[in-house]
Amino acid sequence: MNMNRRQFVKAAGAAALLPLVGSGLAGCGARSGSGRVVVVGGGFGGTTVAKFIKKYNPALDVTLIEPKTEYMTCPGSNWYLGGLKPVEYLTHNYEGIKKHGVKVIHAMVEDIDATGMSVKLNNGSTLEYDKLVVSPGIDFKWGAIEGIIEVNSEKMPHAWQAGKQTVLLKKQIEGMKQGGTFVMIAPPNPFRCPPGPYERVGMVAHYLKQHNPKAKILVLDPKDAFSKQGLFLQAWQDLYGDMIEWVPGKDGGKVSKVDVNSMTVYSEMGNIKADVINAIPAQKAGALAFKAGLTNETGFCPVNLLTFESSIHKNIHVIGDASIAGAMPKSGHAASSQAKTCAAAIVNELAGKDVLMPTHVNTCYSLVSDKYGISVAGVYMFSDSKIVEIKGAGGVSPKDADASFREMEAMYAFGWYSSITQDIWG
Ligand SMILES: Cc1cc2nc3c(=O)[nH]c(=O)nc-3n(C[C@H](O)[C@H](O)[C@H](O)COP(=O)(O)OP(=O)(O)OC[C@H]3O[C@@H](n4cnc5c(N)ncnc54)[C@H](O)[C@@H]3O)c2cc1C
Fold first, then answer.
1. Of the residues 112, 161, 192, which should be mutated to test ligand 1's pocket, given the most ligand atoms within 8 Å of the CB?
2. What is the pLDDT of residues 54-113, one digit of tens each?
3. Could you say which of 57, 201, 232, 386 has the lowest number of CB atoms within 10 Å?
4. Minimum CA distance residue for ligand 1 atom 21
5. Dihedral of CA 396/399/401/402: which sign?
6. What is the whole-number distance in angstroms between the Cα of residue 258 and the centre of ligand 1?
């Protein structure tokens, strides 16, 4: 659906306001109650839920467990690959949320005892909880395609969990021979950040156009359609001519095997010799969700969509990419929105109050060059035990916008990034 400027402003306004409405309601109604809340995973979902539980009710004891002392965001990591932003821009620490009274422990949770209501850490300690929130992100289905196995990601990075992998992929792009071929193996649905692979392609092209203009980018995709497809295809053509070729599943985009030694990709369209391979595997919930028995046959975690409490284990809530969240995409913005309503539900439940009716938001900006941005926004509500999109409240960037509109959206993308990371880690 196309969206005019007025509708866009309306959606953006809703996106900005709704979480605050949630926080105000929870704060007014639920400053009583006590309890210990443990949060696993200091990414978009986990850090937000820890911070907002403490904001809504400072009397609660909130502990966040995350192995890393510094978290590099996936949002913006494509901008880094395109040479637009340095690593430091993407890197956040936990000093900000400590100031809000959240205790932070840098360790891995090894296991969850859902009956005894405790978590076991890899530093030997055990923490008891009244409520547990799990936001472990994603893991990969290694071996789903022959040759795409974990050890080979050192040579053909996925860069789908930001950090060392992202830096490695950038080095490979910078070191690619003149006129070389960059092959992306796109993942099947469902995966984190539906527009992410296609934003990445534009950002890699932005870099190559300046430093390696005869290079080619080939996207081998098992799918026949992708997020913001019309906008991306148009922008690639306008900005990069025939540098980028996208091959959908129906035209031979399915990959059956990769030989990392000869850097050959075997696909239905033929065997391709690549200089850089960005192999993004199929995805499932983070490993802890499996170990704790929180997943179902889909490989993700079913939850009560009013509170994000697991449908399998009581008093354990699962948010973010690991959860099955109805119509919401797997995105950082969605994870943070779920975290705020989950925080309100937990605070109210611990205070013996009714759970409020949640409304959620998501916005995903994608850059195709430093001055060319496109976006998709959605507003979601709880209805009939489901999370459904509110028709007409969101939409995508208009198809025939002029250059100044695209440039403005690129500016909004940077603004979105600053606001959300400050809201979470600040
Ligand atoms: C290239 C790319 C671009 C993207 N761009 C956007 C964008 O523009 N906008 C957007 O909204 N989203 C974007 N996303 C998606 C976004 O990154 C994810 O949806 C988001 O990070 C999900 O949050 P999460 O809390 O579920 O998981 P994460 O943010 O991945 O956090 C999970 C955390 O849990 C920790 N953890 C895992 N297991 C354990 C354990 N056993 N014990 C303790 N800690 C543990 C991990 O260390 C990690 O820090 C992008 C993703 C990619 C790959």
1. 192
2. 999 999 999 999 999 999 999 999 999 999 999 999 999 999 999 999 999 999 999 999
3. 386
4. 332
5. positive
6. 26
